[in-house]
Every structure is written in structure tokens, then in C-alpha cells.
## 1
Amino acid sequence: MTDQTIFPALRYSDAPAAIEWLGRAFGFEPRMVVDGPDGTVAHAELAYDGALIMLGSTRPPDADDYSAKVPRPGGTALYLVVDDPDAHHERARAAGAEIVRPLEDTDYGSREYSARDPEGNVWSFGTYRPGAS
């Protein structure tokens, strides 16, 4: 169980491929995958170091009121804390992730980088912990 109270929820055109890629490139582990019709994903929960994200397959805008309003895939930016950004960066690079901001030390004391997933979401990984004293 997690103390987390905010859960990013993403939509992917090819959610099964996204689940595999997020695991291979960034180290996410599927905790729950609920299959939808025709090879889609109705709901999935992926874990990374005790935190969870949710994702599912896109549906046509006319499927329901929510699908008509939810952003299309690729418009999300997320930040995750990692203990070893150098190793994480190498894993992502080796898996073919598009590095959009190189590994660097920031003025605010973090070591971090950013990469784009195959559907356009930008993921940043670093040692900065928002809210930490």
C-alpha cells in the first residue's frame, strides 16, 4: 500500500506496447492490467519504487463523455525521483528512449534528465524531491 494520493492517469494509443516499453526503458512494473476489447487495456497500474501511475487505451471521443474530454496521448509531462539518475539514464538510452534533456546537475541541487516515450509524453527523472526540507 502506498501513501500516495495523486495518481497520474495516462492514455496511450497502444497501451500494451506502452506498458512493455515503460518497463524496459524506465523500470516500471505492472501491478494490474485489465484487458479491454480487441487487444486494448481498460485499466493498468504500473509501479516504480512504491509509486503508481495508471494508464489505459484511448477510446474514440464519442465512446463516452469522459473520452470526449480527456487529452489525447502524448501531451503529458511527469517527474519521478530516482536514486541513481546516471544508471536510469543509461537504461533509458539503451532501450532507445529519445533523450530530450541531457543528464545534468541543476542549480537547485538535483541530477536529472528528461526523455520522451514513444507516444510523446515527456518523463523527467532526477534526485530532486519536491517538498523535502
Note: The chain has one domain: 9-126.
## 2
Amino acid sequence: MLERQEVIVTLAEAIDIDIPMIIEGRVALEPGSAVVWFTFPGAWHDIGSFHLEDGTFTGFYGNVITPPKIEKHVWYTTDLYLDVWMTPNGTAKLLDEDEFEEAISHRLIDPPTANRAREEASRLLDEARRGVWPPPIVREWTLEQTQAIAIA
């Protein structure tokens, strides 16, 4: 899609999930939906711009991860369970704290990484509340633009 030093934008054209992803009682993602992903090299999160199958924007999904190592279009990262969800009206919420705590109790995440994940999630929530998250490229880059580039 788009590859710059500070961001890589990719398109997942039709998500392969069996049942809709529901967040706060609303469908955020459904089978066949498109997601525009924004990966920031060196960052402890990526961001998905979520849509329904008909293209309706449902929100921004901040996925807390280890910084991706990218080698010739192969990406290596670890999902750290915590996620930040922002609705189209700008309300942000932390998701999956129970999964995160369970991963810690099963020693799937070591204490320093768990602390870093908590810091990242807190930072994203703080920035969302201040109106500076997600960054401008995420807010401005539309599904339609991404699809047009993919077709070209």
C-alpha cells in the first residue's frame, strides 16, 4: 500500500472471521469487512481503521504489540492483549484487560513487557482523551483511498 519511514499502511480487504466482533454492544467488524492497518515501525502499537462489510466506518482499534521487526515484507511481533477502542464520536476505552491479566498469570508475558504494555495503553488513552490519538494520517487516510491504491 503505502510505505514511509514513519508508517506502513496496509489493507485487509475482507476479514476472515466466523462471527462479528462486538464492542460495547455494537458490531465493530464482521465477516467480509475491510480494515486499514497503520503500523508504525518501532512503536508498541498499531492501529486498525475498522469498517463493516458495506464500508461503514465503525472506529479505530489500537492494538498494543511489541515493536514489529520487519524483514523483506515479513513482520514479527507479539500481541500484548491490551487494545484501545475509539468510536466514531471519539469515545475511547481500554479493552481486554481480563485477557491481559490471564496472560500475565500464565507467564505468557514477562513483567517488564507487561509494564511496557500497560504504559502504552495508558498513553494511547490519554492521547485519545486529549484529541491527539489516533495521529492525523490515521484520521485522514480513508478506506476509499486505500482501495483505490490497491486497485491501481
Note: Residues 2-143 form a domain with the FomD barrel-like fold fold (CATH 2.40.380.10).
## 3
Amino acid sequence: MVDRYRTVPGSAFEVDWGSGYDLVLLTNFLHHFDQETCVGLLERARRSLGEGGRVLAVEFVPNEDRVSPPFPAMFAVMMLGSTPSGDAYAAREFEEMGRAAGFARIRVDPLPPSPQSLVTFEQA
């Protein structure tokens, strides 16, 4: 199993990610950046995938009203105050970013009992 898992040290914005991966994990990462930067990261992730590969992100996903559920909504405020341009994105925004990055299917599923959600980006 160890020979099938690899981390890539360095900046996600600068290093060569490699290719042919079945899975790329972007856990608790996208909310630190603006949507344009997220699209760029998702594009890099998509290019590193092999056929049938997918990207999984774990994120706080508020509803479209941006005030519920309480924890993801509060997390958006924390990102506003602690990052230059981060946010807690609604499901629709993840779908838009995923499509802009070239993914065909984007799904957001809750991860109870956690207040976070699993965002899955899949190729065609």
C-alpha cells in the first residue's frame, strides 16, 4: 500500500504535481483562496489525474443564504478576517469552480457528525 501513496513537498502553486493519480486530496485548503485561485488549483489537480481519477476536498459549505448552517456561516466570517481573499463557498460556487476547471461532475455531500462537507470533482 505504501508504494501507492505519495506526498509532494513544496508549494501547491509551484511544484510539479506529477500525473496519473487516481485521487488528489485538497482537504481544508480551498477556503483559503479566492475563486480564481481555486479554479487554478483545481485545474492543476485535474491535469495530474489519470483516467477515472477524482479530486476530493473537505470544506465548510454554507447554504446559499450564507447564514446557515451556523458553523459554516461563521467559518466564512473567520476566512474574511484571517485571509486576504478566502471564503466558505456554497455548493453552487464549488460547482462553478469545478466546471471552470474542466470537471464534468461536482458533488457536495455532508460529513456528519462533522460540520464539514465532502466536495467531489470528477472527470467526464
Note: The domain at 19-122 is CATH 3.40.50.150 (Rossmann fold).
